[in-house]
Design a protein that fits this description.
It contains 10 helices and no strands. The protein is mostly helical.
Length: 214
């Protein structure tokens, strides 16, 4: 074997070793990229979770800090509960086969997470009434906070006490998300959608309120 042949063989072996190292480095870089993507995804998830928790805490703080009189709270509660009951009623109208499985609005909110059919119907109902998920969070928070001590006032009684409830909300509620949710609830009721849906379902408000509280 000549020196040239020996040199050529050594060179090929060296190049092969270099290729192997490059492949090993490429694999390592791919693993590092995957690890980086996983960490980024986890970071984004935790960031969203923390942001959501912070928003919920802020909402609860805002609701519990409201300085309305008992009468004013009753009036706001009346609008809130009518909208929540109406949403539940409308969902049941669109999902008649699930009436027994969705006895409360809470059951709708809980089951829509994993049930696509319920989720699609829920989203269509929100769109129909011009509401967003943030509005529902605000209204449900308000209902949970004051549902046990507030009293429902029918429309005629509400109008006797407060002529401009929208102005009252704008002046008294400083949290923007809570203010938006309450104002939209007023708009839904005043536009008559609640009355229409309730009549179609032929269920009284008194019958539906207890199921919502449960």
């Amino acid at each position: 074997m000549t020196n040239e042949t020996t040199t050529l063989i050594s060179l090929k072996e060296a190049m092969k070793r270099v290729d192997n190292k490059l492949q090993a480095l490429e694999t390592k870089f791919e693993e590092l990229d995957l690890a980086k993507d996983n960490l980024t995804e986890k970071f984004e998830y935790h960031s969203k979770t923390l942001a959501s928790q912070a928003a919920q805490d802020e909402m609860w703080t805002a609701v519990l800090a409201l300085k309305f009189t008992s009468m004013e709270l009753n009036i706001l509660y009346s609008y809130v509960v009518e909208v929540l009951v109406c949403l539940h009623t409308r969902v049941l109208e669109k999902l008649p086969d699930l009436v027994r499985g969705l006895p409360t609005l809470a059951s709708v909110l809980r089951r829509k997470v994993k049930n696509k059919n319920i989720r699609v119907v829920w989203e269509s109902v929100l769109e129909e009434f011009g509401l967003q998920d943030g509005d529902i969070t605000a209204l449900c928070t308000f209902f949970i906070a004051y549902g046990n001590k507030a009293e429902h006032y029918p429309a005629k009684v509400r109008q006797m006490y407060i002529k401009d409830v929208t102005r009252m909300i704008t002046n008294m509620v400083k949290n923007q998300a809570l203010q938006d949710g309450l104002l939209r609830a007023i708009q839904v009721v005043e536009k008559g959608k609640v009355v229409m849906a309730s009549k179609e379902h032929k269920s009284s408000l008194k019958e539906l309120i207890p199921s919502l509280k449960n």
